[in-house]
Amino acid sequence: MIWLSLTLLGGYLLDVWLGEPKRFHPLIGFGYLANQLEHRLNFGSKTLRLSMGIFAWCLLVLPIPISIFFIQINLSLSTTYFVNCDVILDVIVIYWALGHHSLRLHGLQIFHALKQGNLAQARVYCSYIVSRETQQLSEQQISRATTESMLENGHDAVLATLVSYLIGGAPLVIIHRLANTLDAMWGYRNKRFNYFGRFSARADDVLGFLSAKITSVLFAVQTFNFKRIFCILKLAYQQAKNYKSHNGGWVMSSGATLMKVQLGGKSIYHGEATTSPALGQGTQPQTQHVQLSLTRVNYAALLLISIVFIVELIYWAKQAEMIF
Amino acid sequence: MGKASGNDFLNITLKNTTLEHGGQLDKMAIKYCRPTEQWLDLSTGIAPFSYPIPIIPQKCWQNLPNVNDALIQAAKNYYQTKHCLVCAGSQAVIERLPNFWRQKYHQASQVYLPKVGYKEHQKSWLSAGFSAQFYDAELPKKIEKHIVVVVINPNNPSTQLYSKQQLLALYQQVKSAQGLLVIDEAFIDVFDHAQSMVEAINNDHLIVLRSFGKFFGLAGLRIGFVCASQAWLNIMTESFGPWQVNGPAQYIAQQALLDTNWQHQQRVKLQQQSLKLAELLQQYLVAELAICSLFITVYLENAADIHHQLCQQGVYVRLTDEKHSLRCGIASDEQLVKLKKALRNLA
């Protein structure tokens, strides 16, 4: 049967229709817990901080996926229904982990504010999604920052979830979601987190390694041009080498080249100007690229689900042939 | 027409009249011969999702409503301020502010007001005999002695948001001119706390008005907060007298201000619905939109005509005072379906 693609599609559609869970989002509680743990464990020597960082990561990330894993083994042994119970569980987990709806919301409110020319509002909304300072940003700089964020988070919150499910099922989806949240909280190279957060940052790099490449390919094939697909991926490979985040570099570079814009450049973080290498190739991003990047992320997700569907269909047809 | 004659005109028209706001459904029902329950009322900027009313302890009904310390504590937490006062909606304060300021500085006579915005400010200052100057998008630059500057942030209906930097700069100027900066933050709850000027209060030259009913969808409670220096709060408390806000309202507000989870969900929901509303409006109207999570202002060439057509179909949005735009409150999914039907029938 074609359960894999149906499960992915189910989780995807739930997210589109329902958005965030109505009353209580578990990640808020998780964030609180992580903060508490960090306050208690992040002190002492470099080695101590490093190992405590690993310990805290394991303590926060692993218990739930491991329990889900065992629950699912039991479910698949005991189930006699037509629809497996673990399919339903999988759909719920994917829905929970997907942040597509929320990404769209954040992106579109910036897009609308920019289109109205309401710069102050756009700056505020932009500050919700990027860590650089937004008070002085021009319209064009906000477009750039937002487009970057839409592409990078399009990977982290949408495509990485779908790919994680294909690789490791619901447990890996949860591991990725939680690890990604911890990276956002602890993965900084400053005094407080340099050692404690190092493992979190590495873990996120590893967990997103494959999905970032797949996302880049999914962006590249949207050109429908063999030569350009190759160029996009080659450029992404080169540019990601120099970029601070390997996975982010790949997805932003390929997404930007697809839209014929160039991202990266100067920005101000915590009062200090930093210049990051160029990502992608083309003109400076404008307001419409915020919306366009969301469309491209959406196409990439749907493309992935369609490919899985076709592969499953072929596989299923072959099996059926063998039986008859 | 010169600026002065414009002001005189306003002086005459606004002094002793009752202003029209949104939320006058009864009048509309009579005018368009349609019973109120058949209307879709989007004329206010009040959230369509209300904070669920908790079970109210008997004592809240039984006792005289002295100001509840737990409420003030909750409000201080929510607004992140050291000094705040609960009142029966910010309207009560708006009406009295000119007199308070006069008592402090007899010679004060000038006020800067936003050209568009909640007209009660204008009415109140003009009635007290202040002469007004109006500013548009740009904040006023020339700050004279003891001048009062009223800023509505974000502005209703234009949705313009002034940045913290701009406001802090203005505050500095007002402070050195011994003036008064009044910031009406009635719609600011949809942004994060960093946008509010509440935390900048450190003397008698800044008063921030916060509204409770809009974001929490409980405008009927008539509850609001003033954040200002302790000296101001003392003056106001004395002037208002005891038992301003009824006990059940205090209790509900206290619960709502503490429920950060609900507040988070509300922000997301409002943001989501405002984008849906924007998409719908753009689909059916050729118009410029100004979007905020509590309302959308639609700038149209034929705003009055569209307003009339919508009313004929039982959809009540607010025609702004300038008659060049409609202000449409955020709608729930069911309300959006009704609105879509009406928009489709527009000529």
What features would you describe in this structure?
The complex is a heterodimer of chains A (324) and B (347). By secondary structure, chain A is mainly alpha-helical. In chain A, strand 1 and strand 2 (272-280) form a beta hairpin. The radius of gyration of chain A is 21 Å and the shape is globular. In chain A, helix 8 packs antiparallel against helix 10 (209-220). Chain A has helices at residues 3-18, 26-41, 46-61, 63-78, 85-97, 100-116, 119-127, 139-186, 198-207, 209-220, 226-242, 246-258, 287-323; strands at 262-269, 272-280. In chain A, 45% of the residues are buried. Chain B folds into two domains: 16-49 and 262-344, Aspartate Aminotransferase, domain 1 (Alpha-Beta Complex), CATH 3.90.1150.10; 58-259, Type I PLP-dependent aspartate aminotransferase-like (Major domain) (Aspartate Aminotransferase, domain 2), CATH 3.40.640. Chain B has a seven-stranded mixed beta sheet with strand order 2-8-7-6-5-3-4, sandwiched between helices. Chain B has a four-stranded antiparallel beta sheet with strand order 9-10-13-12, with helices on one face. A two-stranded parallel ribbon of chain B has the order 1-11. With 347 residues, chain B is α/β, with parallel strands linked by helices. The longest helix of chain B is centred in the C-terminal third of the chain and has 25 residues, at 260-284. Chain B is built from twelve helices and 13 strands. The A-B interface holds A 19-20, 22-25, 28, 101-102, 105, 108-109, 112-113, 116, 118, 120-121, 123-124, 127-128, 135 and B 154, 159-166, 191-192, 194-195, 261-262, 264-265, 268, 271-272, 274-275, 278, 288-292.
